[in-house]
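FAQ
Q: What does a multi-component entry look like?
A: The components come first, one per line:
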Amino acid sequence: MPVSLKDVAAHAGVSIKTVSNVVNNYQHVTPAMRERVQRSIDALGYQPNLAARHLRKGRTGIIALALPELGNPYFAELAASVIDTAAQHDYIVLLDHTGGLREQELLVSQGFRARVIDGLILSPIELETEDLRDRAHDVPLVLLGERDYDLPYDHIAIDNVAAARAAVRHLIDLGRRDVAFIGARRGRSEPAQLRVRGWREELTAAGLPADERLVAATDGWGHADGASAMNHILDSGRRPDAVFAYNDPMAIGAMRVLHERGLRVPEDIAVVGFDDVIEGRFGAVTLTSVSPDKAAIGRLAVESVLARLHDRATEHRRVSAPYRLVERESTLGRPAAQRRTDS
Amino acid sequence: MPVSLKDVAAHAGVSIKTVSNVVNNYQHVTPAMRERVQRSIDALGYQPNLAARHLRKGRTGIIALALPELGNPYFAELAASVIDTAAQHDYIVLLDHTGGLREQELLVSQGFRARVIDGLILSPIELETEDLRDRAHDVPLVLLGERDYDLPYDHIAIDNVAAARAAVRHLIDLGRRDVAFIGARRGRSEPAQLRVRGWREELTAAGLPADERLVAATDGWGHADGASAMNHILDSGRRPDAVFAYNDPMAIGAMRVLHERGLRVPEDIAVVGFDDVIEGRFGAVTLTSVSPDKAAIGRLAVESVLARLHDRATEHRRVSAPYRLVERESTLGRPAAQRRTDS
DNA sequence: CTCAAGTTTTACAACGTTATACACGCCGTC
DNA sequence: GACGGCGTGTATAACGTTGTAAAACTTGAG
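Then the predicted structure of the entire assembly, as C-alpha cells:
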C-alpha cells in the first residue's frame, strides 16, 4: 500500500535517486525535471519512510521532552512551545512524563530510548548530579528547570534565586514580616533548592529573620501538597502573614486551606505562587505569581538540542530565560473593589 | 560506536541470524547456544536498532495520541493512562496537541505522520464527519470524546447524554428550575452536541422548559470562555439558579464571574462541571463535576488500536466507559463555608 | 566539429534488521 | 544402511533511503 521512491521513479520514468534528490531539494536538478518528478510525487501521494531515512542517516528526527507532569499547565504550555519550535525545524517531539520520579528520570536520562531519539530535553525533579554523570550515551541532553547541576550540559532556566527574591521582596514591600515558604524538597541538600535560597537571601537582606520553622517540606508539588503543608504550618501554632509557594498549584492548595480556616487572603495572609498558570487567574482570589517566559524557554531548549546535534563542538552553556512578577489580588494592599470579603 | 548484530555475531562466532534468533526468543535455539550468544550480547552491551527493525517489520512501535490541549488536566491524566498502557505492550506514545483546531485535527487524521506511527488515538473537537470520511491511510484510528461520528471507527467515550442528564437531574433535585448551559459549540449542528442534548432531554423529561436563551455558545473551552459566557448570560438580564458547564475550566471561569458579581455559589446559583479535574477540588468553592473514568478510557483506547493493528478484521465498535457524578460544595444544599477539603 | 569542463542523472552499495529458503546433522524406520 | 523427517544453524535477499562515484548529457572554446 505505501508508495516508495521506487514507485514514484517508475511513474516519472526516472531513477530512484533523482526522486530522492527532488525530495531533499538537492541543488543539481533542472527545474523541468523537478517539476515532472514533483507531479508524480503529488499524483501518488508519496510520503518518505522515516525508518528507512533514519537507518540510512543515523538520525530519527525525533527529540524527546521529558516532563515531571503534564497536568501542570506550566509544563503543558512549555510543551506546546517546544513542539512548535521543533516543528519549524522538521523535528517531531516525543512527550514523556516522569512523574518527578527518580527512577523514571534515570531511565530517560540513561536513554532507554537511545535508539529512537536524536536528542533529549529533560526537566528533572529528583535526579542527582551523580545520576547524570555517567551517561553512557552520546545523545545530546538539555536540562530545564529549577535544579542546579554542576555538569557539562546545556541548562535553560530563569534565574530562580533572583525570581524568588523578587517575590519575597514584593511581600516585604507590602509590610509583611513573617513569610512562610511552602514546597521545600524533603531531605535534600539545601544548595540545590534555589527558590528557598532566594527566600532566605531576601529576608536576610531585609534584616528579617529567616525562620526555618516557616519552611514546609513536601513530598509532591500538587494542590494537595500545598494544602497539607499549609495545614501543617498553621497546626504548629505559627501564623505567618505571607506565604511564598514553590508553584501555583501549591499556592492554590494553600489558599483553599486558608479559606477553610477563615483566614482572609490577602488581608490576613498574602500569597505568591510561581509559574503563573491560567488557573491562578480565575480563583475567588486571583494569584500573584512569578511568570517565567515559557515560550522562550521552550524555544531555547529546542535550539540548544539542535545546535548540539548539528555541531557537537560548542561549549556547554547555561541560558537565563526572562521572567516577571505578575501582581494580582492575593497580594493586593487593599481589598479589591468588587471582591466580597466572605469569611 | 553502536554495536550491531554483526559485532555480536563475530564476537560469539556465529551467524548474524542466530544472534537475531536469540534476541527475538526464536524457539529453535539450543540452550547452550542461547547462553553463549547471550554472553556476547551482554559483554558488548548490544541494543537493537529500532529503525532497522522497523524498516524490516514495517512497524514503528509508536502510536500517536492527539489531544486538544495538554494544559487541561483531564487530558493530561488521560495521556498518562495511555502512555502507561502502551508501555505495557512495548509501544511508545507520541503526544500531539491540536489546540482543538480543525486544521490541525485534519492534518493529524490525514496522517501527516503516517509513516512514523502505527496507530492514532484522536480526540477531535472541530473535526466533521466528512473530514474523516476520506482518510487515505490505513493507519488504525480510534476516536475519543464527546463528538459523535457516524463512521466505521472505534470510539471510546462515556455516555455523554446520560452523564449530562445525570448532572442536570442533580440540579433539578436540588430544586433548581432555570438551568443554564455554558459551552455550546458556536454554529454547529445540534445533534453532535451530546451534552447540550442531555441538558435539553433531562429538563424536558422533568416538565421544565429548555430555554435556549440559557444556552451560551463559546469559541473555546477554557476558563476565559466560561467567564465571558457567564457574563453574557447575566448581562442579557437572565438570572438562572443553576449552571451546567461543558467542562470544569469553564465552570471555574463562570464561578469567578459569579464571585465578582456578588452572586453566591451554591446559594444563588449552583454549578456543575464536567471532567472532574483536580483544580475543582481546591477553589474557595469546590466544584461538583461529572467524573469520567480516565484510566479506563485510556486503557480501552490503546487496546483498541493494538487490536486493530494485529488483526484488522474486527468489527468497529463503540465502547462506553464508566463515569460518576461527584458532588461537592458548588451544589450543596447548605452554605459552602467551613467545609474541609475532600479528597 | 571536437574535446575538455561542467552539469545533471544514474547505478550501486551501504545502514541493521528479519524472513525465506536451504544445508546440515541427528534420529528412528523400513 | 539408505531414507524421510525433524530440529538447529546459516547464507542471502529484502525493507526504503541516501552517499559515492561514475555515466550521460550539456555547453562553449578552439
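Q: Is there any commentary attached?
A: Sometimes. For this entry: The longest helix of chain A spans residues 294-310.
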